[in-house]
């Protein structure tokens, strides 16, 4: 089962990593993109806690990078939130 919103988030984060100007941001975004690609393919997908941690990390990177990178990250966070609205619990 592919979780389309998580797959979309991973693709957007990969694009953000390509556009990032700082090596640290590139590495962190690439790692996040890989994690979302993995989440997208998993049977259960991540829980609310894990998604909240991803959002915190992504927000931090977006604030540091700004511009196009922040825009792509914001789109990715929107996709994560769309997925999160389908997760039972909190």
TrEMBL record:
InterPro entries, per the entry: DUF7553 (IPR055975)
Biased composition (Basic and acidic residues): 20-30, 38-50
Segments for region (Disordered): 18-50
Name this protein carries in UniProt: Uncharacterized protein
């Amino acid at each position: 089962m592919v979780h389309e919103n998580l797959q979309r988030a991973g693709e957007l984060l990969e694009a953000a990593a390509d556009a990032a100007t700082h090596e640290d941001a590139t590495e962190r975004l690439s790692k996040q993109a890989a994690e979302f690609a993995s989440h997208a393919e998993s049977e259960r997908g991540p829980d609310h806690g894990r998604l909240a941690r991803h959002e915190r990390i992504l927000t931090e990177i977006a604030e540091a990078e700004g511009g196009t990178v922040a825009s792509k990250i914001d789109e990715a966070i929107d996709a994560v939130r769309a997925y999160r609205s389908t997760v039972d619990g909190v």
